[in-house]
Fold:
Amino acid sequence: MNVAFVTLVTNEDYALGALALVRSLRLTNPDFPSIVMATRDLPQLQELAREGCEIRFVDRLPLSAEFEDRHSRGKLHGRAPYTKGTKPIFHDPLDNFCKLRLWEYEEFERIVFLDADTIVVKNIEKLFWYPEFSAAPNLYETLNDMHRLNSGVFVAEPSKRTFQDMLCTLDIPDKFWKRTDQTFLESYFPDWHGLPYVFNALQYIYFHLPQLWRWESIRVVHYQYEKPWETNHVRREQLKPLIDLWYSVLENRTIPVDVPPLNSGSS
Ligand code: UDP
Ligand code: MN
Structure:
């Protein structure tokens, strides 16, 4: 089966994120190709290519000016403020929608998309045998969120027809996608398949749901909200072991044998 891992970068910050992601994939899933979708040339793209990634330049989606205005950073944050965590200044909500371009890559039977703020700490190749649309729950605060999906890791079956149909469903007058691609994909695939949360362990489970932080089971760590490379990281203390984990992948190409839960002592 022709398959690939795909991520998206639109600026230097996310390109740095992708570098850690791609290094983690080299360590844990070396047998499958990785593609970086980029909306423009960025300094780290050469480095990403040296890591063996294919770089594919993509255009932003052909969206109406009204759609772009409604989903601009200022407007979106005003209308649907983020109350659970902070979004870095370099995060442009409109850029999230570019993910949908992967449905154009029909040469692949399956694509596993990973946000550029994830790292893969174990083998995840079995995801290629899951159907469209598979994603893990948006679990980071309480177990009540099991029914919500998180769009940082998902399995797709590329199809230009699907892509065209998505564009028609996405940009309709006055439609507001409060959490951008995530809300859109949840609505477009109402019968989405649930992946175990360990395929997309959101960093906040580390302090909100520490009982779910089981290092031996976790396969993908997703740094939703604050990014590990942010200089003004507001949860630096709470997330230190996870930030250290991210740097050990980026700088030392090493995945620690254990990242124990909070207050676990030596166990
Ligand atoms: N992204 C990007 N540039 C942006 C915003 C998003 O390249 O300005 C891409 C990147 O792959 C990122 C993903 O879209 O990981 C989703 O955004 P993010 O991970 O910041 O959202 P969160 O996981 O915090 O909800
Ligand atoms: Mn993310």
Observations:
- The CA atoms of residues 98 and 153 lie 15 Å apart.
- The mean pLDDT is 96.
